[in-house]
Amino acid sequence: MIRNNISFLNEINLVNQNWKSSSRIFGAAIEMWVEKKLNCECSGIFINKKANQKAYDAICNKCSKKIKLNLQKKIFKPNKNGELKILSSEYKTTLKSLNQSNGWDLYLLAYNLEDYKIKQILMIKSSDINEECVIPRKIGI
Ligand SMILES: [Zn+2]
After folding, report:
1. Ligand 1 centroid distance, CA of 20 (Å)
2. Backbone phi, then psi, for 13, in 5-degree steps?
3. What residues make up the domain containing 46?
4. C-alpha of residue 87 to centroid of ligand 1, in Å
5. Which of 11, 44, 79, 134 could cross-link to 62 by cystine, CB 3.0-4.6 Å?
6. Is residue 76 assigned to a domain?
7. Strand 104-112 relative to strand 66-72, pairing
8. How far is residue 130's CA from residue 141's CA, in Å, rounded to a whole number?
9. What spacing in Å lies between the alpha carbon of 21 and ligand 1's midpoint?
């Protein structure tokens, strides 16, 4: 569930202006956006973890659900069976640890560099993950 709007321009302006790496800037801004604008299924709020203690990215203030975020510029495209193939090895590692931890959800967010808007949010339950693919569920957008 998304509160208010899908723009993270306000959050971009809050990011450390000395940072040069765009992926770092967008990552930090979108984490702030998640805390302010995205609700857990239980209607709780996701509180970000500090950067130096990241076994997960955020935790719900009501039901203690832990989530990890995966951000990219391109839209995620599930196939006609609703499955998303996993290509990058880094991503596979994330999913493996996710699966083992049993109880985190993964949120996939696609964002637009030009207008600072979230284009897509998919949620993946740890139970919907296997070696080859994941089965995402749509959130809001
Ligand atoms: Zn919750």
Report:
1. 34
2. -70, -15
3. 9-138
4. 29
5. 44
6. yes
7. parallel
8. 25
9. 32
Q: Tally the domains of the chain.
A: 1
In this prediction, what percent of the chain has a pLDDT beyond 70? 79
Ligand 1 geometric centre to CA of 63 (Å): 4
Pair 95, 134: CB distance under 8 Å: yes
Give the C-alpha distances (Å, rounded to integers) separating 98 from 6, 19, 34, 78, 103: 26, 29, 19, 19, 8
Q: For residues 38 and 7, what is the distance between their CA atoms, to the nearest angstrom?
A: 12
* Distance in Å, CA 123 to ligand 1 centroid: 13
Give the type of residue at 48: N
Question: pTM score, two decimals?
Answer: 0.82
Q: Is 51 helix (H, G, I), strand (E, B) or coil?
A: coil
**Residue 18 located in a structural domain:** yes
Judged against a pLDDT cut of 90, whether residue 121 lies above it is answered with: yes
pLDDT at 78 over 70: yes
Report CA(22)–ligand 1 centroid distance (Å): 30
CA of 45 relative to ligand 1 center, distance in Å: 7
Residue 128 lies in a domain: yes
Which CATH number is 20's domain given?
Answer: 3.40.210.30
